[in-house]
Structures are given as structure tokens and as C-alpha cells.
From TrEMBL, chain A:
InterPro entries per the UniProt record, alphabetical: BP-dep_ABC_trans_perm, MetI-like, MetI-like_sf
Family: Belongs to the binding-protein-dependent transport system permease family.
Listed CDD domains: TM_PBP2
Subcellular location field: Cell membrane
Protein name (Swiss-Prot/TrEMBL): Carbohydrate ABC transporter permease
Transmembrane region(s): 12-30, 74-96, 108-131, 143-164, 185-207, 247-267
Main location: membrane
Automatic annotation (TrEMBL), chain B:
Keywords: Cell membrane, Membrane, Transmembrane, Transmembrane helix, Transport
Membrane topology: Multi-pass membrane protein
Descriptive protein name: Sugar ABC transporter permease
One protein family per Pfam: BPD_transp_1
Length: 277, 311
């Protein structure tokens, strides 16, 4: 049974509207970042600028404060991803594959790790704040790396359990018979087999930690500021700084954009899977 | 183009577990994670629970943390600001959830429909990724420019169809609605992707059987699609409720709770109370109230994660 033609037209119109509403803000972000100043202070707003400029980007990239923030963001995201991936997959592997005395122990530990996903971050923020103060870690990259690693560790464990449990039992059994210990099995069999899973998970963690905002804004004041902190502190409208705001935003989404373009499949899988688990 | 996600519900009950052979390595593998869990979760949570039952004059260098029972919790329920923040958070969450579900299901049905051009629908699916590359903090900044009363494009587009200027986030009466719109823009694509994945993994037979029986598309949707999609929708509702109640980033960068307190949702008021005004004991108590609110959906999700769906 075929739907009547006007239903089809309605479907096309609806999807077109959804797409226009979805895409326009993204277009606006990019286009505002390359507009001349007179164009973002004009009425009616300039939707299609005739002249463009990269001066906003040049100005931002030349400023030492921005260079530091970009560097900080990279250091924090890369280190936390590496640490969370390492610790998380080691833990996940043992919990999926080795009986710790009794299966109940494995289940208990896995559930314990999963439960952390359910806490609102704000419940942890207050104690973290006091701990960072007591240990004088305020405004250090170490603090951000430590927090991000901890926050994303449970995610890595949960995502990787899903990949590890699919490794055929026989492969590891034959390696065990050949006398491989746990570490050798992990490095030579498990890691190569779960390359996809490891990539998807690292992409997800990298993006999440690159964008991480609330801990960064709470624990940094000068030296350890990351990009989201600087973007978030545009809240005081000292006049309208659209050029700076949007150019900086574009800079901050560039790594995510590149990931989305060059590995779309991993990107979507990572985002949705991370949220579902 | 494979842009759909599949929900996989996993169970630890059936893990292919091996006997412990090299204990030394197992200890090495588990130790870093164990230490991390202790210092980043177990200790802070106990600390926070302890704080929530205490009083502490943080500005006094000799001030000690003193246990004083339920006082902080009692204060929450007699504090109008926090209560109205709770009401606001609920209005925000539930209206966003309903709209996201309606748009999510309708768009997912259309992009998986065989009656529409396949090239068009796969293009739509690719374009829907766009908000996912925008981080929430950036989304807040971006929408502030879009909502701008004088220079923003939204008021301009509306003026083209004869709607007069709306103050959006500049007016306490419309600010919360404006925040809900951003939430919908930012996270509906995620809902669409999950439902699309759910629709694509449904068995074909019930649909064919219904077709043979001469069901109208309308009946087909209510009697076949929706019941089959129920588990996926329940998971989405749970996930969204949990994330909606935890919303923070873009509200911070867009309105910072203002104007007045019109968009001050729970996370933001707890944040201000604890970090800005340093009432750490009161904020700890409020954060445990939020945790308790999120307990039912959390437990549901936990159960779902461990029980394999019978299908």
C-alpha cells in the first residue's frame, strides 16, 4: 500500500525544515567567525557576507593566553585519554576474563564501577573542590588530568567489557596452553583483536575530555585554563565580542570536526554507545 | 552510510571467565583502577555525605567540620530558591523530553521510510550529525548570538513572517523556553540516532503480517511499531531524564542562570551555592537530594544493563 502523494510531500517538507533548523546555527557559527566587524553589528543581520576575514583567528592564535589554553586542552585530553584507556582496559580485561575467586566478585566490582556513571557530577564536585584545595592542586594540569582520568575510567571499563567479552574463548585458551601469561595475552592477542573497540572508545573519551567544562572551570584560574573555560567566561557581555567568541568556538570544535569527517562511523558509534552504556 | 546506533544490552552473567592462573599479573592489572576508584569515588562520596550532615564555617581558618544531623536537608525544603529551582528543572526536563521524543520518533520513522528517496534520507542522517560536533559550552555561546535581540538572525527571520521582536534569553518570561529550545537543538539528533537504530533492528515479520491484514499506516504505527520500539524508548527516556537533570554546560555559558533566576536549574544553583558562595555543606546536601531524585531512573537503567532483553 502506497501512501498518498501529499503525505510524501509533507514528509519531505518536515525533514527539510528539521535539517534547516539543525544546520543554520552551525553555519552561523562558522560564518560569524569570518565576518568583518561591521557585518556582525548590522541590521538586518548579514547571512551571506560579501567579504570575509581571518583576522579573528590570527588575533586569537597569536595571543599567548589562547596558545596556552590550546596547549592545555591538548595535554589534558591526550593524557587523560591515554591513562583512562590504559587503566580502564586493564581493569575491564581482568574483570571480564578472570574469575576473582568467585564470579560474584567480578559482578560486584563491575556493578560498582557502573554505578559511578549514575552519580550526578555535582555530587563529586564539592568534595573534589575541597580535596584539590587541601592538596594545593588548584590551577594545575595534574588536577585536571587526574579528574578526567577518574571521570572517564568507568566509561572505558564499561565500553571495553562489551568488546572483550566477544573475543572467542579458544584464541586465548590456545595462547594459555602456549604458556603466555596475562600480560602477553593482553598485549599480543586482546589489543590487536579489539583495535576497533579501542579506537571507538578513545575517540569518545578524547572528545568528552576535550569538551569537559565543569571541572575545568572550577579548578583552573590562570595557568591551567582550557579552551572551554575561556569560551565559558565570555559570559560577561563586555560589548558584543561575536568575532572572538565564534572564532574561538570554531577553534575549539576543530578536532571534533576532523574526527567526525575522517571517521564518521567511529564518531557516531562512540557518541551513542558512550551515552547508552 | 552507517550512522545508526544499536542498543546492546549486556550481561555479566554470561561472561566467559577463566580460572585465575597468574595472580601477580591480575593484581598489577587491577591496582591502578582500584586506587582510582578509591580516591575519586569512594572517599569523595563518603566525604560529601559527611559534609551534608555537618556544619562548617569555611571562612574561619580554625573552623572545624561539625556533625549536626539533618539540618542542611531541612534547610533545603524550607528554602524557596532551591525549591523553585527544583520546579524549574522539572519543567525544563519534562518539556524537553516530550518534544525530543516526538521529533525523535517522527524523524526516525521518516528517515527509515522506504517511501522517501534513499539518497535524501541518508543525507538527512548525515546532516543531523552537525549539532553533535558542537560542544555544549560552545552551543551556549552560539545561541546567545542567535537570540540577540537587535543583531540576532532569529528575530530577523521571524520579522520576515511578521512576528515582532522577541527578547528570548533577555527576558525572565521567555528565558527558560529559550533554554529548552537549545536543549532540543543540541540533543534531539542523539535521540533520533538511537531510535533510528532501534527501528532498523526490528524484525520485519510483524509489519508484513499487519500489511496482509490491511492495517492503515496509522494503525501500523500505534499497534506494531510503537509496541516493538518500547524497550528502546524506555531506555532513551531514562538516559535523557538523567542527563536533563544534570544539564549544566550550555546554561552556564548562555545565561548563567539569569536573567534573575529564571534559568537557574538545580546543578547551577548547587554550583553557585557550593563553589561561589562556599556553602559547601549546604551544597553537598542539595547534591544528594539531586542524587536521590535520579535514583529511580538510575536503578531502572542498572537493571536493564544487567538483564538481557528476551528478544
Amino acid at each position: 500500500m502506497k501512501p498518498k502523494w501529499h503525505w510524501k510531500v509533507l514528509g519531505y517538507v518536515y525533514l527539510t525544515i528539521v535539517i534547516l533548523v539543525t544546520l543554520f546555527p552551525v553555519y552561523w557559527l562558522f560564518v560569524t567567525s569570518i565576518k568583518l566587524q561591521k557585518d556582525w553589528l548590522s541590521r538586518p543581520p548579514v547571512i551571506f557576507p560579501k567579504q570575509t576575514t581571518f583576522s579573528n583567528f590570527q588575533k586569537l592564535l597569536a595571543s599567548p593566553e589562547m596558545q596556552l589554553a590550546i596547549k592545555n586542552s591538548f595535554v589534558v585530553a591526550a593524557s587523560s585519554t591515554a591513562l583512562a584507556m590504559l587503566f580502564g582496559s586493564l581493569t575491564a580485561y581482568v574483570l571480564t576474563k578472570i574469575v576473582l575467586g568467585n564470579r560474584r566478585v567480578n559482578e560486584f566490582l563491575l556493578i560498582g564501577i557502573l554505578i559511578t556513571r549514575l552519580f550526578p557530577f555535582i555530587t563529586l564536585l564539592i568534595p573534589y573542590f575541597l580535596m584539590m584545595r587541601d592538596f594545593q592542586l588548584m590551577d594545575t594540569l595534574q588536577a585536571l588530568i587526574l579528574i578526567n582520568t577518574s571521570v572517564f575510567f568507568p566509561f572505558v571499563v564499561w565500553l571495553m567489557v562489551g568488546f572483550f567479552e566477544n573475543i572467542p574463548r579458544e584464541i586465548e585458551e590456545s595462547a594459555m596452553i602456549d604458556g603466555c601469561n596475562l600480560w602477553q595475552r593482553f598485549l599480543m592477542i586482546v589489543v590487536p583483536i579489539t583495535k576497533t573497540g579501542l579506537s571507538v572508545t578513545s575517540i569518545f573519551i578524547f572528545i568528552a575530555s576535550w569538551n569537559e567544562f565543569i571541572y575545568a572551570i572550577t579548578f583552573t584560574t590562570h595557568q591551567a585554563k582550557t579552551l572551554p573555560v575561556i569560551i565559558g567566561s565570555f559570559i560577561t557581555d563586555k560589548g558584543i565580542q561575536w568575532g572572538d567568541m565564534t572564532a574561538l568556538s570554531v577553534i575549539s570544535i576543530t578536532p571534533v570536526l576532523l574526527i567526525a569527517i575522517f571517521s564518521q562511523k567511529y564518531f557516531v558509534r562512540g557518541l551513542t554507545m558512550g551515552a547508552v552504556k | 552510510m552507517q550512522t545508526e546506533a544499536r542498543i546492546r544490552i549486556q550481561s555479566v552473567k554470561k561472561l566467559p571467565l577463566f580460572k585465575m592462573t597468574d595472580r601477580k599479573w591480575a593484581v598489577v592489572f587491577l591496582t591502578p583502577g582500584f586506587i582510582l576508584m578509591l580516591i575519586a569515588y569512594v572517599y569523595p562520596l563518603l566525604y560529601s555525605l559527611y559534609l551534608s550532615f555537618s556544619s562548617w564555617d569555611i571562612f574561619n581558618p580554625d573552623g572545624k567540620i561539625k556533625l549536626q544531623g539533618m539540618h542542611n536537608y531541612y534547610k533545603i525544603f524550607t528554602n524557596d530558591a532551591l525549591l523553585s529551582s527544583l520546579v524549574r528543572t522539572s519543567i525544563f526536563s519534562f518539556s524537553a523530553l516530550v518534544i525530543q521524543l516526538v521529533i525523535g520518533v517522527s524523524v526516525a520513522l521518516l528517515v527509515t521510510s522506504e517511501h522517501l528517496n534513499q539518497k535524501f534520507t541518508s543525507l538527512v542522517r548525515a546532516f543531523l550529525l552537525a549539532p553533535m560536533i558542537i560542544s555544549p559550552v560552545v552551543a551556549g555561546i552560539l545561541w546567545r548570538t542567535l537570540y540577540n535581540r537587535e543583531y540576532g538572525p532569529i528575530n530577523y527571520f521571524l520579522s520576515l513572517v511578521g512576528i515582532s521582536k522577541n527578547p528570548w534569553i533577555a527576558d525572565p518570561d521567555t528565558a527558560l523556553m529559550s533554554v529548552i529550545i537549545v536543549e532540543i537543538w543540541l540533543f534531539t539528533p542523539f535521540v533520533i540516532f538511537i531510535i533510528t537504530g532501534g527501528l532498523l533492528s526490528l524484525a520485519k515479520e510483524p509489519f508484513e503480517a499487519a500489511k496482509v491484514d490491511g492495517a492503515t499506516p496509522w494503525q501500523m504505527f500505534w499497534k506494531v511499531t510503537l509496541p516493538l520500539l518500547r524497550p528502546v524508548i524506555l531506555i532513551i527516556i531514562t538516559l535523557r531524564i538523567m542527563d536533563l537533570f544534570k544539564t549544566f554546560d550550555y546554561v552556564y555559558s548562555m545565561t548563567y542562570g539569569g536573567p534573575g533566576e529564571s534559568t537557574e536549574i538545580l546543578t547551577l544553583s548547587i554550583y553557585k551555592q557550593g563553589i561561589k558562595f562556599l556553602d559547601v555543606t549546604g551544597a553537598a546536601a542539595a547534591s544528594w537530594v539531586l542524587l536521590l531524585i535520579l535514583l529511580p531512573p538510575s536503578l531502572y537503567l542498572l537493571r536493564k544493563t544487567f538483564i538481557r532483553e528476551g528478544r
